[in-house]
C-alpha cells in the first residue's frame, strides 16, 4: 500500500517530471508506469496495484521484470498476514528466478509503523533467502529511505545474473 504515492515520489526524486501530490492520487485500476534515471540506470516501474482482483495479472509481468519492489503498509499490522502470503507466492514464482527483492516498509511518518527490520521479523519469509533482498524503511510522503533502497536495488540488479540473461534475450529479439 502506497505504491502510487511512492511512484510519484520516485518521479520527483529521479526525473525532471514533478510527481502528483498525495491528495491527487486515486486507487489504481490497471497499470501505472513510471520512468526515471538513477545512478546511470534507466528504470521503468510498473505499479501493478494491490487490490485482490488485480493480483492475478501480476504474473504476466514477472518474466520481463529485472527486480521486484514490494511495498507494505508497515503501519497496518492487521494486514501483515496478507502481505506475507502474497509475497510468498511472488517469491516462489519460477519466472522471478534470481530477481532481487526490495521490500519497502512504508508509512514511517506514522508513529505506529514497524521498521524494515521489524517487518522482516514479522513476515519471516524463508523464500527470501533464494533472492538478493533488502527490507528498507521508507515514507512515500516525505521521501525518507527511498534513495537508500533504490541505490541498493540498482547495485543488486547490476550484480544479478538475471539482468544479464534478460539483456541477452532482448538482444535476441532485436536480431530476430
Ligand atoms: N501516512 C502515509 N500515508 C501514505 C503513504 N503512502 C501512501 N499513503 C496513503 O495510503 C493510501 C494508499 O496510497 P496509494 O499510493 O494510492 O497506494 P496504492 O498501493 O497505489 O493503492 P491501490 O492503488 O489502491 O492499490 C493513500 O491514502 C495514501 O495517501 C506514506 O508514506 N505515509
Ligand atoms: Mg495505486
Number of strands: 5
Label the CATH architecture. Answer: 3-Layer(aba) Sandwich
Helix content: 25-40%
- Taken in chain order, the helices and strands follow as HEEEHEHEHH
Overall 3D geometry?
globular
> How do the strands of the widest beta sheet line up side by side?
3-4-5
CATH superfamily: P-loop containing nucleotide triphosphate hydrolases
What fold name stands as the CATH topology? Answer: Rossmann fold
Task: State the name of the first-level CATH class.
Answer: Alpha Beta
Q: Name the poorly predicted regions.
A: none
The count of domains is 1
* Strand proportion: 15-25%
Going by helix content, strand content and strand pairing, the class is alpha/beta
- Between the first and last Cα atoms, what is the distance in angstroms? 40 Å
Integer average pLDDT? 90
User: Major sheet: size, sense and barrel closure?
Assistant: 3 strands, parallel
What is the CA-based Rg, rounded? 16 Å
What ligands can be seen in this structure? guanosine-5'-triphosphate, magnesium ion
Put simply, the count of helices is 5
